[in-house]
Amino acid sequence: MAIISDTQEETRPSVPFKASLDPSNPLGFLEKVLDFIGKESDLLLKDSAEKEIATAVTVAKKRLSEVEKKKKKETVKPIEKKLTKESVEPMEVEKPKKDSLKPTEPMEVDKPKEEEKTGPIVPNKGNGLDFEKYSWTQNLQEVTITIPVPSGTSSRSVTCEIKKNRLKVGLKGQDPIIDGEFFNAVKPDDCFWNIEDQKIISVLLTKQDQMQWWKYCVKGEPEIDTQKVEPESSKLSDLDPETRSSVEKMMFDQRQKQMGLPTSDEIEKQDMMKKFMSQHPEMNFSNAKFN
């Protein structure tokens, strides 16, 4: 296996990378990879090195999450087929007439403006979907729902109930405009709503799992194609504390090695040895050799 950066492809010869992955110590293998990259390229010397590596970690997590989802779906498919055979033929539900749909009329799930399609739908510019009664957008951390209401609507006329797995929002005295379960759980204490210019209800939802794209906002909506979302630039601060700590440690160790200085593990061992020597002054360490 040979790793060559794009800027060095024509100036540096191909150098083989030799290392084996120990499943019990994956970070050890990753440190060797970064060490190799540090020797054969200038990537780790760039100011944007942490951001680029953090982006790669985020993308890898996303791919792993998608693989796990596919596995779960494959285990469910046989059951779905069995239920389909034994169940009664589906009954068509009469569609409401266009004239009967007024701006303030409630509806649990609205249909997208574009024609219905089989399979996932390409998301809007905000990585969500637009409907006649509302629209939603998202990033990895949050989901924003926008609901147009009659001009002059005050906050006192709005009812909004946000739970961990469910949203109910509408106008007082009327059936809810949205009433359904989320694609995934949210943090109710970090969610809020407001009314903008007395004509738009805006609901901000903070996701619990901030490494996953939602395929729909409320259960029953068409699913979007999460492969077509346009994620924002990932930052090191976006990673969870454990992953961020591991990445920062590896980056520090690679810089130390490039400058001929001890790594974090070596510094820790040296500190432990100094402490031991100070606690045992009667011992002679003059001829001791340390690796």
Automatic annotation (TrEMBL):
Residues 67-102, 108-118 have a biased composition (Basic and acidic residues). GO terms for biological process: protein folding; response to stress. Its main location: cytoplasm. Keywords: Cytoplasm. GO terms for molecular function: unfolded protein binding. Signal peptide: none annotated. Gene3D superfamilies: 2.60.40.790. It is found in: Cytoplasmic granule. Residues 129-218 form the CS domain. GO terms for cellular component: cytoplasm. It holds the Pfam family CS. Residues 1-25, 67-125 are annotated as: Disordered. Small heat shock protein required for the establishment of auxin gradients and for patterning of the apical domain of the embryo. Involved in the specification of the cotyledon primordia. Also required for normal inflorescence and floral meristem function, normal developmental patterning and thermotolerance. Acts as a molecular chaperone. This is Protein BOBBER 2-like. It comes from Raphanus sativus (Radish). The gene is LOC108839514.
